[in-house]
């Protein structure tokens, strides 16, 4: 146990030495909807608690993995230690399932006990206006010189103008889909895409997006949760009622 904790202790001064990172690291109680989506018992991506038995993440994280190898860790600020681990029994992807921004719905083998450090988050019904404050949490990489964090982090962002983002992405040769949104750093901070994939983009305590890229990109691209809300709500209910998946 001491050997596991020691590297975490060493990493904290690196994190808090950045004056702009006033929310790094962060307690799980401030983002109780955060999950670690794990493959073969190891952290692979971030995820979000939608309900007591439904987790949302990016399809790319688990696209090629059978559900028997997928689990989620909740209620812990450490990606590979503590909290509660629950197995996944079903997954349901968007029809396309070939884009980096596609969302997957994971159904757990048994419901979580919600409360305290384990809570669901409400889905936003509309994208906040450009410039609105937002955050992304996860076990990301805060610098190209530092490996991905073992401790939960939170990065401050702002919602980006969709047209501006579309143009910026087009210049780079990437077409921005209608079910994607953008958010950019509010200062000289690390890019949200570095190791935060599957993590929640939150504004006003509502889920606005899910990190969908894992490459150097400014602004960062997210799955557009308000656009996908109807599909998520309907599919999650069908998975529970008719055992589809």
TrEMBL record:
Gene3D superfamilies: Trypsin-like serine proteases. It catalyses: Preferential cleavage: Arg-|-Xaa, Lys-|-Xaa. Its EC number is 3.4.21.4. Its main location: secreted. Residues 1-17 form the signal peptide. It holds the Pfam family Trypsin. The keyword Glycosyltransferase does not apply. Transmembrane segments: none annotated. Residues 15-237 form the Peptidase S1 domain. One of its GO terms (biological process) is proteolysis. This is trypsin.
């Amino acid at each position: 146990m001491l050997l596991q904790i020691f590297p975490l202790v060493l990493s904290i001064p690196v994190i808090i030495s950045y004056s702009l990172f006033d929310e790094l690291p962060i307690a799980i109680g401030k983002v109780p909807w955060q999950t670690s989506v794990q493959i073969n018992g190891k952290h692979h991506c971030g995820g979000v608690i939608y309900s007591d038995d439904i987790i949302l993440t990016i399809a790319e994280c688990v696209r090629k993995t059978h559900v028997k190898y997928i689990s989620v860790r909740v209620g812990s600020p450490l990606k590979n230690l503590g909290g509660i681990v629950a197995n996944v029994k079903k997954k349901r992807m968007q029809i396309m399932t070939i884009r980096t921004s596609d969302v997957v719905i994971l159904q757990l083998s048994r419901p979580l006990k919600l409360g305290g450090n384990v809570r669901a988050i409400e889905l936003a019904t509309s994208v906040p206006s450009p410039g609105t404050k937002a955050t992304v949490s996860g076990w990301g990489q805060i610098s190209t010189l530092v490996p991905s964090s073992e401790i939960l982090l939170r990065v401050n962002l702002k919602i980006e103008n969709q047209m501006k983002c579309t143009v910026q992405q087009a210049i780079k040769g990437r077409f921005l889909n209608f079910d994607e949104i953008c958010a950019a750093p509010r200062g000289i901070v690390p890019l949200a895409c570095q190791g935060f994939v599957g993590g929640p983009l939150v504004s006003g305590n509502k889920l606005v997006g899910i990190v969908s890229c894992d490459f150097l990109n400014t602004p960062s691209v997210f799955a557009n949760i308000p656009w996908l809300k109807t599909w998520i709500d309907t599919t999650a209910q069908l998975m529970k009622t008719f055992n589809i998946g």
